[in-house]
Amino acid sequence: MTEWRGKALAQFPELRELVERESWSCHVFLFELRHLAMEAHRTADTEALTRVYDFARWCLEQPGQFLSNAAVVSFYVHVFDDWELRHEVVRWVPARIAERVRPLWEWRLSSERLAEVDRLLAAPTPPECTPPGGVG
To answer: Taking every annotated instance into account, which residue ranges of this chain make up the domain DUF7674 (predicted)?
Structure first.
């Protein structure tokens, strides 16, 4: 079993069927996790959000390019696709990750939306809004 699958099974036992699909790459799994994150944002499920964003960050921080690139192009580049959730999402995207993904947001978001994301990322996060573990 690949390392990402083992990590995914540990963090998402409820998604065992998806993790064990041999035809699925980490790219596909991360894109599916984005859907889980958006639903968790809608329901204020901090526990699920913590697991999802921790996994995406773990992938991004792995040596080599495969998992890191998968996290960028299959997860982080899409976090603002559900625009109405931008205020919730921005609290879960650390500055170091935003800097890395921003060139792709420039390509995907309108200039108005990118300016709004920049403004939200630059605003101080009140302590009561910081995700567990200080991700924000």
So the answer is: 9-105
pLDDT for 134 equals: 52
Predicted confidence at residue 133, as pLDDT, reads 53
Distances 3 to 13, 27, 49, 96 between C-alpha atoms, Å: 15, 14, 21, 24
- For the segment 69-86, the average pLDDT, to the nearest whole number, is 96
Residue 33 has pLDDT above 50, yes or no: yes
* pLDDT computed for residue 127 by the predictor: 46
Closest CA to 61 of 48, 71, 51, 52: 71
Taken in order 21, 22, 24, 26, is the CA torsion positive or negative? positive
Q: Are 72 and 104 in contact (CB under 8 A)?
A: yes
SS (H, E, C) 103-123: HHHHHHCCHHHHHHHHHHHHC
Identity of the amino acid at 13: P
